[in-house]
Amino acid sequence: MKRVHWAIIVLIVVGCAAAFADATPEIKTLSLAPTRRFVRDGAGLKQVLDLHAEFAPGSADCPATIEVDGTSRDVVLKPDKKGSAWAEVYVDEVAKPATIEVTVKCGEQTKTASCEIKPQKHWKLYLQPSAHVDIGYTDYQERVAKRHDENMKLALDLCKKYPGFKWNTEAAWVEDNFLSTATPEQKADFIKYAREGRIGCSAIYANMLTGICSHESFIRNQYFAHNMSVKYGIPFDDAVESDVPTQVWTLPSVLAGSGIKYFSSGANIWRAGSFNRLFGKSPFYWQGPDGNSVLTWISHAYAWAARLGLTTGMENARRDTESYLKDFERRDYPYDAVLAFGGIGDNRLLDETLAKTVQEWNAKYAYPQIIFCRGPEFFQYVEASFKGKIPTIRGDAGVYWDDGAGSTALETGMVRQAQENLATAEKLSALTSSLFGAKYPKAEMDEAWKNALLWDEHTWGANVSVRQPEADQTVQQWKRKQAFAQKADTQSRALAASAVDVLASQIKLTKPSVVAFNPLSWPVSDWVTVAGKDGLAATQYVTDVPPLGYKVAPLSSKPSVQRQVPPGGVPVLENRYYKVVFDSVTGAIKSLYDKELKRELVDSKSGYGVNQYIYTSAVMGPKRQMSDIRDVTRDDKTPPAVFTKQTDEAGQTMRIAGSGYKTPELLTTVVLYDKVKRIDFVNTMTKDETTDREAGYFAFPFALDKPEWYVELPDGVVRPKKDMLPGGDMEWYCAQDFVAAADNKSAVVWTAIESPLITLGTINRETRQSPLPLDNGHLYAYVFNNYWNTNYKASQGGKLTFRFSLTSMPKYDPVKAVRFGQSVRNPLIGRLASSGHSSPITHHPASLCSVDKPNVVIQAAKQAETGRGLVVRLREVAGQKTTAILTLPKGKFKEAWSCNLVEDAKTKLPITNGKVKVIVPANGMATILVK
């Protein structure tokens, strides 16, 4: 290209060069570099070039004049200690590439530098500032709350001082704490600036491990922020997840279904190194399984504004914003705007320098324009300016960090069950409140849900939890985290028991009976356990309990018969569905023959039996991940298992007493039912506590040929072979009600009660590879580990219980899979009631709420957040848009509305004789309010 002399810039030392030659510092090198900055020049723009001069270290300041196109201005080049000096040069904005040449005269010296400049975008750098929320980690949880309160108070002051300043909570937990502790004046300021969009309030309660959330807790995450929006008029349109690198596929469905349009993720890909392939795709519409989308930005890190130098002044800001914007100068990035997520690291203090630097920047530069935002401003600009150019992406990111929940298997199992108990308690309490006027325990429900949510929040403990497991920070922060699980467990059990008591009190009884409540959407025949008069548990089989209804059954009990399997005998269970043969040493099932399918379900080539306990040891590798992962179970010489067979009214039971590596006691119960095609496994172990790197599994190696896998997420299903995002986690998954595997001959459906983590194909090898092959039918319940080196617990021991169930069928049926999983995890609940009640309803079985389509389940029934009406949530599970009839008791409800997930009424629906016609989208949800 022909050299273009766009401007010749001459620096002339002020004064007589000859007279001051000895005082003039020598310019050793001179360079010129283009930038992405612009300044205003009247109605036009000037591009900014950076001029760098190198002097000898310790050189004095050099007064100079810069001349550009006949204009001049005086400057002083100020060498730093190393001799580097810097100045800005302004040239007219170019419309095509051009070469700029600079000539500097300093005394007798003449130096020349040049650079090529190109047309630059007028960049808009949207800054979504927040302090990262770790509820714990850096300090005790209560001190962390105080720190975020301090940040909010300062943010309110900065809103008054700097007109363009905005601040974000990052998690609604911050808003919750602040509003509960603020003075009336501070609360008023918060509400004022939040209404104006100066304080951004994230829709999500905390930075969650999304995979371990339940179907309902995943939605309840948005309830607090939405309630504050309704109460105070605060915008509710933007959601944030920070630090946690990946979220499950149903998140966009739940956010969009709650009325949220935009989602920002500050990803931390430590222990998630494969998930970096979407950085270059942002922004994009992330579409959930139901077809709903949120406009999404995934950031390179969770406190990125700190890396822009804005918290340390203009000099660093110039350098670091240039570096940041350089990453977006790509052909596949058509936009002239970027989002910088977050501003301050883990629970750190807000510094006024951030607001001051941005104000100074915008006063000096026209572009890049730095715009404080809540988040929606960036997305709205992109949508308006680049319509049709934003891609849509479908898929699941996986649960890279959720494996840490296995470091506290006992408490994770407690919360997992508590979330189901709460959903059941809500259903029964809401129905008895609506139908009989019973008191609805709103405050108690809210507190229990909050404790469950705070368990699912990603901070488990102190930053030194693994390095210093006995440190006070580690011990105290764990006690506080553990308390969330213990409270949720206690509260949920009490609420469920109280709800059944209320129901039983409404039924006319003539003699002592078992009152059983079915929390599911279809009739159920199952065992129910109640507390007997003597304080001991009594188990009763009750048939055909109506959907979300009750049945009264007389109390009866048949004695069980036990016999020990003699040494050398073959331990076997057999009924009309299965023949189960056990390994006499390991206690695992070495043969599981399905008589209906005429098929062996155990893959003998795997080296493991069904429900076989595996203990692995590992060492920490140089890249802070596990290496040399070995199954040491077989290395331990343990005596053969002892088998005891029992028959009772339910069917056949095999009790197996054994042991394992660092597991001195392992008691397993396997139940083969007479009346239902289902096998239950109850594994209770006493485990040694150790900080040695370890993991535990129960193997389920099914003999299936290259099966398709189906893993139920919160509010949806993912097929790992087909639905994973690029780089998404395939090394482990979190399952809700079921996991299924199917080939062209048969399918197996499996569920776990306490443990959400599973691996497919093989155990966790810590490869961090994605994709991974899934060619066999091997499933492993990944029940515990201590593989992290921060945050999560370093060791666990004591008594642990892990329960699993499975069934098999000719082919995968999503409705049957959902029903199987929910029936295992949400059994009948009941109580032993006495006679003599003068109560309003008869003892005849009755449904309190039902839906007519088998592919639609009643996920929740609860009192409306307003306190007026009953809210029922339906979920479609077979991928078919469905018109369903919701049936409620006649004469109790006169009005109905369709709502979004957070109960905003949208459309009035006709209701006739307690029946409401509802359209439920494929793989989606519908929420109905009735009054």
Task: Itemize the secondary structure elements and their pairings.
Elements: E1 8-11, E2 29-41, E3 44-54, E4 62-68, E5 71-77, E6 84-92, E7 98-106, E8 109-117, E9 124-128, E10 131-132, H1 141-161, E11 167-168, H2 172-181, H3 184-196, E12 199-200, H4 215-220, H5 223-232, E13 238-243, H6 251-257, E14 262-267, E15 284-287, E16 293-299, H7 314-326, E17 337-341, E18 344-346, H8 353-364, E19 369-372, H9 376-385, E20 392-394, H10 409-436, H11 442-456, H12 472-505, E21 513-518, E22 524-531, E23 537-545, E24 549-554, E25 561-564, E26 572-574, E27 578-582, E28 589-594, E29 599-600, E30 612-620, E31 626-631, E32 642-647, E33 651-660, E34 663-673, E35 679-687, E36 694-702, E37 708-713, E38 716-718, E39 733-734, E40 739-742, E41 747-752, E42 757-760, E43 777-785, E44 798-809, H13 814-825, E45 829-833, E46 846-847, E47 850-851, E48 856-863, E49 870-876, E50 882-887, E51 896-899, E52 905-909, E53 911-912, E54 915-920, E55 925-930
Parallel strand pairs: 1-7, 9-17, 9-19, 10-18, 11-12, 13-14, 14-16, 15-20
Antiparallel strand pairs: 1-4, 2-3, 3-6, 4-5, 7-8, 15-16, 21-24, 21-45, 22-23, 24-46, 25-32, 26-27, 27-28, 28-29, 30-31, 30-36, 32-33, 33-34, 34-35, 35-44, 36-43, 37-38, 37-40, 39-42, 40-41, 41-44, 42-43, 47-50, 48-49, 49-55, 50-54, 51-52, 51-55, 53-54
